[in-house]
Amino acid sequence: MHLHEKLFFESTQGIKLCGILADSKKDFSKPLIIFAHGFGSSKDTRKAVHLEKVLGEKGFPFFRFDFTGHKESQGNLEATTLTQGVQDLISALKLMQKKGYKKFGLIGESFGTLCSVIASTQIKNIQFLVLIAPLWNYQEKAMDDLGMEKVNAWKTKGTMDYTKHNGVVIQLKYDLFDDAEKNNGYEFAPKITVPVLIIHGAKDTKVSVNQSKKAYALIKGSKLEIFPESDHYFLKQEELDQITEKAMLFVQKHANL
């Protein structure tokens, strides 16, 4: 059974972030798994907790944290950018390095996957990536969702209404769209040098599975698992069990123990 330690640490912008480290053995020979959640979500999602439990039973330490502006982390959710997300993830990784961990694996979902992809090209000792319902190109997604007219209106106003999972409406800044131009996952994909598992639902209406198909073709040696009946969230217990099993087997294979 994992022992949980709540940790607070600073981002590169000096914002206090919160994470939970689960590790009962302190076996630094195994890679630490860092989980990066989706936009508007948190470290405490059912998926994150389940992955922590299953991988913990196999002896893998696990760290899940809240991005800036999410749940227990400080900051402004409305001002989220991918650049900030990448820096948050790198800050979390550096904290774990200070704790003594030397090898890492990244598991991300949605927004957190693109942060993981970019971070993996900037940080050493990342051994593998598991990307669940991944976002590869935010500008492409926004154009598909909104169309040119609404994107232009967003730019002119500077903010737009965004409804979170819980129904709360926030004023999302245009900075997210503008910043995404330099954080195009298709451009980073060929730079990935570690094993990659991509898991995507064919019925995902939040991020098209076509994004993952395109990225898969750009990453040498990557593995793509498409779930024909699944959407963006994999909410059914059967789906959660299946993606967890695939993630666990992939992690075990590429942990380089």
Summarize the structure in words.
This protein is α/β, with parallel strands linked by helices and 257 residues long. The protein has one domain: Rossmann fold. An eight-stranded mixed β-sheet has the order 1-2-4-3-5-6-9-10, with helices on both faces. Helix 1 packs across helix 8 and helix 2 packs across helix 3. The longest helix is centred in the middle third of the chain and has 20 residues. The chain is globular and about 55 Å long.
Q: Would you identify the regions where 5 or more consecutive residues have pLDDT less than 50?
A: none
**Could you give the order of the helices and strands?**
EEEHEHEHEHEEHHEHEH
Sheet-strand content, in percent, reads 15-25%
What is the gyration radius calculated from CA atoms?
17 Å
Helix content: 25-40%
Helical element count?
Answer: 8
Beginning-to-end CA distance, first to last residue: 21 Å
Cα shape: globular
Multimerization status: single chain
Short description:
The protein has 257 residues and is of the alpha/beta class. It is 37% helix and 22% strand. It has a single domain, classed as 3-Layer(aba) Sandwich (Rossmann fold), CATH 3.40.50.
What topology emerges from the helices and strands here?
Layout (H helix, E strand, L loop, with lengths): L3 E7 L5 E7 L9 E5 L9 H12 L4 E4 L16 H17 L5 E6 L1 H10 L5 E7 L5 H20 L1 E5 L5 E5 L1 H6 L4 H4 L7 E6 L7 H8 L6 E5 L9 H18 L3
Parallel strand pairs: 3-4, 3-5, 5-6, 6-9, 9-10
Antiparallel strand pairs: 1-2, 2-4, 7-8
Helix pairs in contact: 1-8, 2-3
